[in-house]
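Fold it.
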Amino acid sequence: MNSLAKQRQITLKHLYIDHQKMIGLKFYPDKVIQALVKELPGVKWCKKYGMAAIPNSSANLNCIFSKFKGVSWINCTHFFPNKPVRIGNEDISVNSYRQRTPKKGRRVCPEEFYQKLEIRKYSMNTVRVYISHFEKFINHFASVTDLENLDENNIRDYISHLVVVGRSDSFINQSINAIKFYYEVVKEMPNRFYDIERPIKKQTLPKVLSKGEVLAIVHAIGNIKHRCMVSLLYSSGLRRGELLNLIPADIESGRMMIKVRDAKGGKDRYTILSKQVLEDLRTYFKSYRPKAYLFEGQMKGQKYSPTSLGKILKQAAKNAGVQKTVVPHMLRHSFATHLLEGGTDIRYIQMLLGHNSTKTTEIYTHVANSDFMNIKNPLDL
């Protein structure tokens, strides 16, 4: 593909216009592209989305590729949501929800709900949460045909129902987020349910491990691949998903940095790389030769299973004699806490963790013991 074709990029999007599935074509103004777009079958300009659109069909999709071959680079990243995203041992995507066969009498999300999730490029974890909670909501009001007829009182009744059946605060908040997403984002009704009350947020402290416990866990892992994964979670403060998304090029050994791409909130950032972990990574790489991702499962080119990583860590903690229930995120919490105890400025910790504000990072000041150690216990006095 020549450089001119790449400059003339066309991004394909899923659109839903007048109850019809459409292929959106987004591009920067260019006389050549505009002339070719006009030749597409059934093309029309969609002012609302600022792009051209043609009916969504296999024939029209092939026509696009044929028409712009050698002229423009077709970016299909947002258009093919059916490309599998691995979660645990499942291949799941927005399209997989579309293709489900629902149980008899059970309602599923409207098509526009799926499309908005795709257009906004939400993570698959958010997609799963929103679809699951919104479908619980609309099936609770199964007798209501038009969802726009539901008002604030209906929402409050539903939230009260969740409280009565013992749902957690997190579950309730996720339900509210999914409902608000439909009415305020999909249906474009800003602040439709602005006054809906949420459970009072509880301040729970992060669970952390001591440095000795972390080292014991790492030393209890004999497999070099597993040891590298667990060591990186702690030494670089990575989330589980961030670790499994790493590719070999993200390890920038010359700078002793790790590039974390498309992390939570769609943000990129850098974090630090341990010298000891780098040595282990080199040993691991020579033995395993990963093809696409830094850590792959049994099938080359596929991400390592997050579920398997959790089991490895849990077994390592058991072998190390650690009595706590250890999960991957505890290593991230421990990373931040130990840095804070070692005197690292909280603003640097914020950047390493990828937090938007130091207020999020300040939670670790409540578990770091560096200042507590200087306090004389009154009983000892």
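The beta strands are 10-17, 20-27, 44-46, 51-55, 74-75, 85-87, 90-92, 251-252, 257-260, 269-272.
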